[in-house]
Structures are given as C-alpha cells and as structure tokens.
C-alpha cells in the first residue's frame, strides 16, 4: 500500500514528494520496503498500489524484479486502494495474501513466517506488539475518563495476512457499506472472519512523523561515523538559433537555444558534476562520454539521477544542492521555484534542500555579450565513514 501522501511526515518540510518516495539513508522509502519483501523466499508476487498522480515518482525508482508486478493505481481512500490491489491479484490465483504498508521498510522473513503460521487455522493474522504504556481514555480530549487494561491491548502492525478469497469478498462488501476501517483486520473482523495474532517486532516501525525518518536512518546506519563532503560543478553552453532554453529541466522561451551534445541543460550538468565531485567520482564526461551517440539530445535528468544514485549506492544522502545561473537573458527569477521543485523531484530530496539563484556578469565576458549561459553549483553530501573508498 503506497498510495498515500504522508501529510504528517511532510508537515515539517517543504516538499512535494509523498513520504514513500523520500530518501531514507540515501534510498527512497518505497524502494527499501519493496526490496525487503522481494528478498523473502515465502513471497512469490508483489503488487505496489500507488496514488493516481504518483506514476512519475514510481517510474523514477527504476525498479525491476521477477517477482514485482506493475503498479496498480489506487482509489480515493485506503480501502478502495486495497481493493484495487486485491482485484489485481486475481490472475495470480493466490491462496494467501499479505497487505503491507510502504512506510514499514523493516519487514523481514521472521514476521512473514509468523503471520503464515498463524494463518494455518484462521482466516487472517496480524503481527502485534505488547502495549507497554499505560493507556488513558478521554471523551473530551481534555480530562481522563478511565484507564484501559493494557494486558488486553496490542499494537497492530503490517504485513497483515489473509486467505485471499475471504478478504477479497469482505473488501468488496465493505466498499458498498462503510469506509471507516483503519486497517484490513478491521474489515475482516466486520466480516466475521477469524483473525489470529502473531508476533510483531519493535524494529518494524512505521514512518509516520518527520522524526521517524531520522530514527530509521539510525537503525540502518547504526553508529557509523558520517562524513560531510562538498563538491563543486561548473558548466557553460553557447547559444545557437532556437526559440527556448532548458534550465533545471524547465523549458523557458527565449530568442535562442543552448548548443550541446545533450539538451545542454547547464543547471543539471553543473549539479551532477558537483555530486560527482563530492564523491570523488569523476565527472559527467567520464560517465556519459560526449563521443557516445546514445547521449545525443539526451534529457539531462539522466545525469542528475545517475549522480544521485551514486550517492545512494555509497550509503550516503544529499544534504544540500546550490546552483547559480549566470546570464543576461532570459530572466531567471520567474522560473526559480519551478526549477527548485523539479531538481528536488529528480534528486528525491526536500525542496528546502535546493537553492537556485541567478546573476549577470554586468555585461562582461561571453555571458555579458549574450553568447551563452554558465552555471556553477555546490553539492553537500553525507557519507558513512567506512564506505569511503577508491571508486
């Protein structure tokens, strides 16, 4: 289940990315969760259910696996999205189905084995953990109305497992009658299905709030020393006849276009080189030689995505991207926010970690003579200390 927007997780940051596409220790959350499921032998097929406007985010993950099916577009509610996912499995004819939240990246084989074992004599099974805090009840949210018996309370997790046909039938009925269910076990209970408990895990956290991202990164990275690296990049392209330029993957009308082997996006080129520099990993030319015709006219998002991926492969994360565009024309100011948003999407980081600025050269030099555009960039990244090595 990966169709939500994660409003609570994003509340403290200026980001257009749903939480499942944000980075956790350098890798998108959804990629981590899917990878964990795909590695488990007991899982035979995985179907992601995504939001109706998330297709481009999902495509950017670049996922491919024999067990992984194409994403299913969900509905306006979690319940409708879950039903869409269940319906998509009909051709697989499964006996058992697991319904899992994308926001729980620490799912493992032991959790799933426990759910499967509990399903031996039940219609459904959910992993749970004991409630250790004292739980108070309040009718008005201001005063205590009673104390719950915590020995009878359990915190439910996912993946929740069910016999396929009964839970599909229950979801179909529930859509017609109600939409107030908070999880799939609640639908099973409503449908009078027997739901058993299995052993959950305190590691199986759900990333819900902004601070949960930091907690997840600590769990992944442990106590490894993180080292901050800064890289710089510079790029320049001359003008040639045309009617627009592409800067930061944004098309801007102009009386000329930039000349280059690719789309000549000086902004993305400078940013990619800054990331490569922070990694001590060569430059764009080393990874994408201009002598190779396959890159002729290429969309420069390819270069920035590749540099971003190289950071993730080292277990690092991007802390900040800063680019300055140098030109007399076109006017950059009206397009700064669009560039920031697009760069953040390409690099899978919060827009608050992207700075785009512009300046002129006071009519001096080739930019002053309006012969071309230049861009200089700086990238700040964080790498695990023991991951530092010669490329």
From TrEMBL:
Q: Which domain of life is it from?
A: Bacteria
Q: In which pathway does it act?
A: Isoprenoid biosynthesis; isopentenyl diphosphate biosynthesis via DXP pathway; isopentenyl diphosphate from 1-deoxy-D-xylulose 5-phosphate: step 4/6; Isoprenoid biosynthesis; isopentenyl diphosphate biosynthesis via DXP pathway; isopentenyl diphosphate from 1-deoxy-D-xylulose 5-phosphate: step 2/6
Residue sites binding a divalent metal cation per the record: 235, 237, 269
Q: Which GO terms describe its biological process?
A: isopentenyl diphosphate biosynthetic process, methylerythritol 4-phosphate pathway; terpenoid biosynthetic process
User: Mind telling me which residues the site (Positions MEP for the nucleophilic attack) is annotated on?
Assistant: 150, 206
Keywords in alphabetical order: Isoprene biosynthesis, Lyase, Metal-binding, Multifunctional enzyme, Nucleotidyltransferase, Transferase
Region entry 2-C-methyl-D-erythritol 2,4-cyclodiphosphate synthase: which residue ranges?
Answer: 229-391
Q: Which reaction does it catalyse?
A: 4-CDP-2-C-methyl-D-erythritol 2-phosphate = 2-C-methyl-D-erythritol 2,4-cyclic diphosphate + CMP; 2-C-methyl-D-erythritol 4-phosphate + CTP + H(+) = 4-CDP-2-C-methyl-D-erythritol + diphosphate
Q: Where is this site: Transition state stabilizer?
A: 8, 19, 261, 360
The species this protein was found in: Pelagibacterium lentulum
Q: Does the keyword Transferase apply?
A: yes
- Where would I find the 2-C-methyl-D-erythritol 2,4-cyclodiphosphate synthase domain in this sequence? 228-381
What residue range is the signal peptide?
none
What CDD domains does the annotation carry?
CDP-ME_synthetase (cd02516), MECDP_synthase (cd00554)
Q: Which co-factor is required?
A: a divalent metal cation
Q: Name one GO molecular function term.
A: 2-C-methyl-D-erythritol 4-phosphate cytidylyltransferase activity
Where does the chain bind 4-CDP-2-C-methyl-D-erythritol 2-phosphate? 235-237, 261-262, 283-285, 359-362, 366, 369
EC number from the UniProt entry: 2.7.7.60, 4.6.1.12
Q: Which Pfam families match?
A: IspD, YgbB
Identify the PANTHER family for this entry.
2-C-METHYL-D-ERYTHRITOL 2,4-CYCLODIPHOSPHATE SYNTHASE, CHLOROPLASTIC
Q: What is this protein called?
A: Bifunctional enzyme IspD/IspF
Q: Which Gene3D superfamilies is this protein grouped with? A: 2-C-methyl-D-erythritol 2,4-cyclodiphosphate synthase, Spore Coat Polysaccharide Biosynthesis Protein SpsA, Chain A
Q: What does this protein's UniProt record list under function? A: Bifunctional enzyme that catalyzes the formation of 4-diphosphocytidyl-2-C-methyl-D-erythritol from CTP and 2-C-methyl-D-erythritol 4-phosphate (MEP) (IspD), and catalyzes the conversion of 4-diphosphocytidyl-2-C-methyl-D-erythritol 2-phosphate (CDP-ME2P) to 2-C-methyl-D-erythritol 2,4-cyclodiphosphate (ME-CPP) with a corresponding release of cytidine 5-monophosphate (CMP) (IspF).
Region annotated 2-C-methyl-D-erythritol 4-phosphate cytidylyltransferase, chain positions: 1-228
Q: Which family does it belong to?
A: Belongs to the IspF family. In the C-terminal section; belongs to the IspF family.
